[in-house]
Design brief:
The protein has helices at residues 15-24, 45-50, 52-63, 83-103, 133-159, 178-188, 198-202, 208-217, 235-239, 266-278, 296-310, and strands spanning 2-6, 29-33, 68-73, 107-110, 164-168, 192-196, 221-226, 228-231, 255-258, 284-287. The chain is of the alpha/beta class. The chain has one domain: TIM Barrel (Alpha-Beta Barrel), CATH 3.20.20. This is TIM barrel protein.
């Protein structure tokens, strides 16, 4: 496996400066934002698709530093019930897939999106309970009329261009657990897989090692994010894991995102790396930073140090008894 980073951390730096910084840390891969929530500070697909020279220079900037692009990321909500909002996210996704094909980047990361509860809705509706029965009716309508049709069509669009779709399992979106990912994958095809981020597993009460086992056995892990979560043992009993308070209210929140090793110890991260290897994942572990208690530089550096202790980089060896 290779250690990488989600470059949105360094959006305030010029691309070349950010790449130099990453390479100096000994990383081998970068995940680059191309629109949607991550923004496109380092990579504007529309511009690169129209300018072969700019495209060549962009590719060379990465490769000349001994790096690969693990994924292009355009996280958004293409199923948003307000058509103008959905169109912006959808267009970013389409352009990103087209650019990934040109750059021979194998994965585009995004969210599944979340629709409203009827055709004329204005806001997404994320049902989280099976009763009253209204919620089940909403969920069935969303999947049958929005989620499956969209990703069946646009999954084929990506597959035709040799690009896989890594959906981040994030609360607030229709695909947010291993089970919902596998449900969509069964309907829309193997082009759909997970951009598995353990931080979102922990706050949903899911063991990331088991999530890796479940998804990995189905060949459904396309990319992996490295971000931690700490759960406050007192606040969680006050607010529950579905704590709706602002992330800035860190003192009272039930949980918060942390840099790798500051929510769960290195042994747990080692278990995840071993589980990834066990199920055949041998791609990139991409560091993401959303730690409100650390600067970008400190959080990134700590994550690099902790992951270098546990990352399995060498190819599988032969067993002496075989």
């Amino acid at each position: 496996m290779k250690l990488g980073v989600f470059m949105v951390l360094f959006s305030g730096r010029k691309l070349e400066d950010a790449l130099d910084y990453v390479a100096a840390k000994g990383l081998k891969a970068v995940e680059i934002g191309t629109g949607g929530y991550p923004g496109n500070a380092h990579c504007n697909p529309a511009e690169l698709l129209e300018n072969e020279t700019a495209l060549k220079n962009f590719k060379n900037a990465v490769e000349s530093r001994g790096l690969i692009i693990s994924a292009l990321s355009c996280h958004g909500n293409p199923l948003h019930p307000q058509k103008a909002i959905a169109k912006d996210f959808h267009d970013a996704f389409v352009k990103t897939v087209e650019l990934a094909e040109k750059l021979e980047v194998p994965v585009v990361n995004t969210f599944s999106g979340c629709p409203g509860d009827h055709e004329d809705a204005k806001y997404p509706n994320w049902p989280v309970a099976p009763w009253p029965n209204d919620y089940q009716e909403i969920l069935d309508w969303q999947w049958e009329n929005k989620v499956i049709p969209y990703w069946t069509e646009w999954g084929k669009f990506a597959a035709d261009r040799n690009v896989k779709i890594g959906l981040e399992l994030h609360g607030g979106f229709s695909v947010h657990t291993p089970g919902t990912l596998l449900r969509l994958r069964e309907a829309a095809g193997e082009v759909i897989g997970a951009n598995l981020d353990p931080s979102h597993m922990w706050w949903q009460g899911i063991d990331p090692v088991q999530a890796i086992q479940i998804l990995g056995r189905a060949g459904a892990i396309h990319h992996f994010h490295a971000k931690d979560t700490s759960i406050d043992p007192i606040n969680v009993n006050k607010h529950g894991l579905t704590d709706m308070q602002s992330y800035t209210n860190m003192l009272d929140r039930a949980w918060q995102f942390r840099s790798v090793g500051f929510g769960h110890d290195v042994k747990e991260w080692a278990d995840m790396m071993s589980a990834l290897r066990l199920v055949g994942y041998d791609y990139v572990v991409s560091i993401e930073h959303e730690d409100g208690l650390m600067s970008v530089e400190e959080g990134f550096s700590k994550a690099v140090d902790n992951l270098k202790q546990v990352l399995i980089e060498e190819p599988l060896g032969e067993m002496w008894w075989v």
